[in-house]
Amino acid sequence: MEDRVVSKVMWRLVPFMMVLYIFNYLDRINISVAKLRMNPDLGMSEDGYGTGTALFFIGYFFLEVPSNIMLERLGARIWITRIMVSWGLVSTAFMFVGGQTSFNVMRLLLGAAEAGFFPGMVLFLTYWIPAKQRARAGAIFMTSIAMAGVIGQPLSSWVMESFDGTWGLKGWQWIFVAEGIPTILLGCSVYFLFTDKPSKAEWLSAEERDWLTKKIDDEQSVTRTGHGHHSFFAGMSNPHVWALSAVYMSLMFGFYGINYWTPTIIKETYMREYASGLDAAALKAVNVHVGFMSAIPFIAAIVGMVIIGFVADRTGKRRNVLVCSAITGVVGLVAAAYTQTTVTTIAALSLAAVGIFGCLSPFWTLPSEFLTGTAAAAGIAFINSWGNLGGGFIGNKTMGWLKDFYTGKVERPYMYGLLIDAAVLVAGIAVVLLVRTKPRKTDLEPTHA
């Protein structure tokens, strides 16, 4: 029964959730490609770009927890539809950005519109997937982050170069049109394709619905009995929530370093190595080549995430897997800071992506070990909002400022930002090793299926 029901749920929900999350990250990372043409056109500096990308996380931060509370009360079907339609509209409107001020305002609005999507998806999985299969389900779902990089980097580069000048729009404007409108349409489809809870799933038999509902309810009952963290205030005051927020913040420094700066790092390395030997036609095609090269670290991340999620569930040692993945990310970031060639830079960024992206699925199994109900909705959103505020806002702002400051002074002006990302990740590893969430034994049992 367990194998049959979980398999049916996975096939029904996870692929569609992955498509949604791919478009979520397309709407975030397309800016890293658009920047290659948008910055010169709008007269924006690297620090200005870093500020704009960072401001996304201000609106995101303040609305994360309220958004997840609304999802728990209204259901994912209604609330995820609202989130996707609103962020699709804002993303499409980026085509009208005309300078630093409007760029900053639109980034703030995009963060506010997207707030709650990812923690909502994590919460949604806890309604459907039993605890001991959750890391594997989460790993498969979260590969969509890396898939967005694989698809988005080359696609955005191709759109920017191929449609430049069409209907009087610049290529970078077409990126936002081509990836914003489908998001609106997908958001509308969520209302018809999502099911809020197992008890409402007409696509399961009565026996399967009853089994899954009882299984999830029993797990949440154990969590409530063992830890008592099921109300809003109990979850928000839990010291483990604050500790996990610090860990997630450390992960997000490296995570957004890869997401927002990979094309820039690869392009600068490539130009430093080959620019003198390129003719005019080759120089014009550089952005397209960079888009395809930038997909390689994300391809590596997909493979790594699936393997790491499987190992985490198979062994049950999710904390150890998380630490090993984070150490791999540190090694990759440090290597990327010092590499001299395009090939070694891509290899180092790939190693960093495998390690950092691989941390996500074992990490997100930890909150449900001691949170349930409203506390889970609030706690997951709280962890995600603080993590993104630190890594997304502070990390991106720091990377942009350092790159501007050291440009022309050192050969690799981005290296100091990468080293800071690595140092913060080391601090996160220390917190993981020091803080215990006291998981239930049943959550740590290996999966032999």
List its traits.
single chain; 449 residues; mainly alpha; Growth Hormone, Chain: A; 80% helix; disordered C terminus
Short description:
This protein is mostly helical.
Helix content: over 70%
CATH H level, superfamily name: MFS general substrate transporter like domains
How would a textbook summarize the main sheet? none
Please work out how many helical segments DSSP would assign: 17
Mean pLDDT: 83
Class from helix and strand fractions: mainly alpha
For the record, the CATH class is: Mainly Alpha
**Spatial separation of the terminal alpha carbons:** 12 Å
From N to C, what is the helix and strand string? HHHHHHHHHHHHHHHHH
Uncertain stretches of 5 or more adjacent residues: 225-229, 439-449
Kindly identify the CATH topology: Growth Hormone, Chain: A
Task: Please describe what this structure looks like.
- With 449 residues, the protein is mainly α.
- Helix 3 (76-92) packs antiparallel against helix 7.
- Helix content is 80%, strand content 0%.
- The longest helix has 41 residues, at 2-42.
- The protein has one domain (2-196, 215-444): Growth Hormone, Chain: A (Up-down Bundle), CATH 1.20.1250.
Break the fold down into its secondary structure elements and pairings.
Elements: H1 2-42, H2 46-74, H3 76-92, H4 100-114, H5 117-128, H6 134-162, H7 171-193, H8 206-227, H9 232-236, H10 239-274, H11 280-284, H12 286-315, H13 318-338, H14 342-358, H15 360-363, H16 373-406, H17 415-434
Helix pairs in contact: 1-5, 1-6, 1-7, 1-10, 2-3, 2-4, 2-5, 2-16, 3-4, 3-5, 3-7, 5-16, 6-7, 6-12, 10-12, 10-14, 10-16, 10-17, 12-13, 12-14, 13-14, 13-17, 16-17
